[in-house]
Amino acid sequence: MAARIIDGKAIAAELRAAVGAETRRLAAERGLVPGLAVVLVGDNPASKAYVGSKSRAVVEAGMRPLDHHLPADTSEDALIALVRKLNADPAVHGILVQLPLPPQIDASRIIASVDPDKDVDGFHPLNAGRLASGLPGLAPCTPLGCIKLAKTVHASLAGLEAIVIGRSNIVGKPLAQLLLAENATVTIAHSRTRDLPALCRRADLLFAAIGRPEMVRGDWIKPGAAVIDVGINRVADGGKSRIVGDVCFAEAVTVAGAITPVPGGVGPMTIACLLVNTLRAACAQAGLAAPGV
Ligand code: NAD
């Protein structure tokens, strides 16, 4: 039997609508309008497209977009000076510096310069530490989206065997921490892992965040497992190109119990979770209870 397709686009739209409703309530009752500063350095076309869709989502949710576009030759010091200004601005509740940055800028220094309470990307080492320690903080958006998608399949992830393929700071590691917080039993696999197919076959939940087109095959998947594919890979297809995930969808869909498509799975959840983080950051900075989304 074919797997249920997890419709990330529809789930993300519902989440964005819920964030919008909560945001409008906050504005009406408290006069608080969450502000998100998105900083783009240079003209990378993919980054420009991401920043454009983030700003549109921010406006749609009733939040205030505060976009900054700097030239590609911006110095590290100039970017840090802007981040410090945004850290000090009470109208700014969230700060996102779009990655990748031009080569003259050390991304880790920029990430560390963002006020952890405004770090809606959840990349600051303090937020990574809070997540690993089980303390409240801001967690990265893509892993948050993955958890929300997994929870549409299993209301509780407690006791489930999960495998996360990939150990990046942006996806794999924080995702593993979020799964631990949900009481899943977590294996983190990576480029040096031995016999990955055998490890995958044990997993009730399989998360692929590798960046290798269709690497996870159908016979790696435990029958009935939930498969969440984070990968975004552009591959040549005749004279054109198309986007595929890290999982071979055509094979996996015949074995899995539920699976995310690429595109239309994890991708749309990332922006929706950015809105959630911005709303949470605004509430925390205003001394209000965490929103119910
Ligand atoms: P990364 O390159 O930083 O990390 C890739 C990880 O895969 C590494 O930890 C590496 O150890 C592991 N890996 C590489 N080859 C492997 C192999 N043969 N076997 C097992 N593990 C292997 O990438 P990332 O930033 O974590 O992103 C991963 C993928 O997710 C990419 O395709 C990226 O485009 C996509 N992504 C999607 C979203 C989204 O919103 N949907 C967000 C971030 C990243």
Can you put this structure into words, describing what you see?
- It contains 10 helices and 11 strands.
- The chain is of the alpha/beta class.
- The strands form 3 sheets. Strands 1-11-8-7-5-6 form a 6-stranded parallel β-sheet. Strands 3-2-4 form a 3-stranded parallel β-sheet, with helices on both faces. The chain has a two-stranded antiparallel ribbon with strand order 9-10.
- Strand 2, helix 2 and strand 3 form a beta-alpha-beta unit.
- Helix 2 crosses helix 10 and helix 6 packs across helix 7.
- The longest helix is centred in the N-terminal third of the chain and has 23 residues.
- The site of nicotinamide-adenine-dinucleotide (NAD) has 24 residues, from helix 10.
Cofactors, ions and other ligands in the entry: nicotinamide-adenine-dinucleotide
Main pleated-sheet profile: 6 strands, parallel
Strand order of the largest sheet: 1-11-8-7-5-6
- N-to-C span: 34 Å
What best-fitting shape do the alpha-carbon axes yield? Answer: globular
Number of strands: 11
Fraction in beta strands: 15-25%
The stretches of 5 or more residues where confidence is low (pLDDT under 50) are none
- Return the string of H and E elements: EHEHEHEHHHEHEHEEEEHEH
Please state the structural category: alpha/beta
Count of discrete alpha- or pi-helical segments spanning 4 or more residues: 10
Average of pLDDT: 97
